[in-house]
Write a structure and sequence with these properties.
single chain, mainly alpha, 106 residues, rod-shaped
Length: 106
């Protein structure tokens, strides 16, 4: 009869050991998930910061493109590249438009 009591105690100890192993396993999984979640959150924060930086750069570049496309800047850049100058009075000729009135209108 003493052996039966011993088996019962061992069975109880084994159940306690299995319970502790189960708690240890679940705790390990929870810690692993929280750690990976924290790492993912850090990556998301870094990507958000990079996204905001890129959006700022895009806005600045769009403004620069709009400024560069204004008529005054385009004309000035073309004149500078082509070596164009404004003609002086000696270089210009004024032409007068002559209007011919038909004979029937007189």
């Amino acid at each position: 009869m003493a052996t039966r009591k011993q088996r019962g105690r061992l069975k109880g100890r084994v159940l306690v050991a299995w319970g502790l192993l189960l708690v240890l396993g679940v705790s390990s999984i929870v810690i692993w998930r929280r750690t990976s979640g924290y790492a993912t959150a850090q990556d998301i924060r870094k990507l958000d910061a990079e996204k905001n930086n890129l959006l700022s750069t895009r806005t600045t570049l769009r403004k620069d493109i709009q400024d560069a496309n204004t008529r005054d800047r385009v004309i000035a850049a073309a004149a500078r590249r082509l070596g164009l100058t404004v003609a002086t009075e000696a270089q210009t000729r004024s032409l007068v438009d002559t209007v011919v009135v038909p004979d029937s209108a007189r």
